[in-house]
Every structure is written in C-alpha cells, then in structure tokens.
Amino acid sequence: MEAIGIKDEKQEIVNNDDNSTDEEEFYIMADTGNEIEQSLILKHVENGDVRSVDLDGDNPYLQIGPFTFQGHYEYVLGTNMFFTTTSTPINQDTDDHSNQNLQLIGTSDKKLNLTRCYIYPKEQITTTTTKD
Questions:
Q1: Which of 48, 53, 65, 102 fits a disulfide with 61 by CB distance 3.0 to 4.6 angstroms?
Q2: How many domains does the chain have?
Q3: 1-57 confidence digits (pLDDT tens)
Q4: CB-based contacts of 76, cutoff 8 Å, min separation 6
Q5: What are the Transcription factor TFIIIC triple barrel domain coordinates in residue numbering (predicted)?
Q6: d(CA 89, CA 120)
Q7: CATH code of the domain containing 55
C-alpha cells in the first residue's frame, strides 16, 4: 500500500454577514496502490501537479501528473496526522541530537482509496442521412 498526504487547494467560504471570504485548507490521505512507484507520485505532488474533480463528493477523481485515479473514501481506525518538518540548530547542552522539529498541520479520519483509470477521448459518431 502506497499512501500519500495531499493538501487540497484552498476553497473560498463566503461569510454573508460582512461579505468577506475565508479560505479553508484540508488534508487527504490518499492510497495510490502499488502500481506506480511512490517516489514518482511524490515528485508530481511536490511540484503541485495535482488536479481534482468532485473531491468532496461520492465519485472523486484525482490527477497526479500524467496519472488519473478514481477513488472512494473509507473511514480509518484512528486519525491520520499530517506534519511538516522544520530544521533547528543542534543543542549542544542536551543529549538530543535531532535537528528537525515536527509541527502538526492537519488531521483526517478518512482515507481516499484510489484506483488508476485511463481516460480516452470520446469517439465522434457521425451519422449520415440519405434521402430516397
């Protein structure tokens, strides 16, 4: 199982009281399976080459680079937690030689299971009418 975390694009939420807009970010745990190497998928995610259709609906589609996936959501046991790392100088006074700190940036209780799909252009059906 290859799983990646994807931050969905910011969505505008309109507040009708004062006509202002707020933006919401949410994170998704996406399981792309084993068909495509995860490092290749992550390269496209890091470059921002991710598009989605109906991501919060019943029939989500996700395009990561040249790869297209159709998915469905499942609840997970526990909570998916998303972190970012920040580098800090090593503290010489302690035995902790770690130079990275983790900062929680989001959580999710669902996983998006993805299956690779192939999209082909529709064939043009031409009809000819003959007059008798």
A1: 53
A2: 1
A3: 555 666 665 444 444 556 666 667 778 899 998 989 989 999 998 999 999 999 888
A4: 29, 108, 109, 110, 111
A5: 22-118
A6: 52
A7: 2.60.40
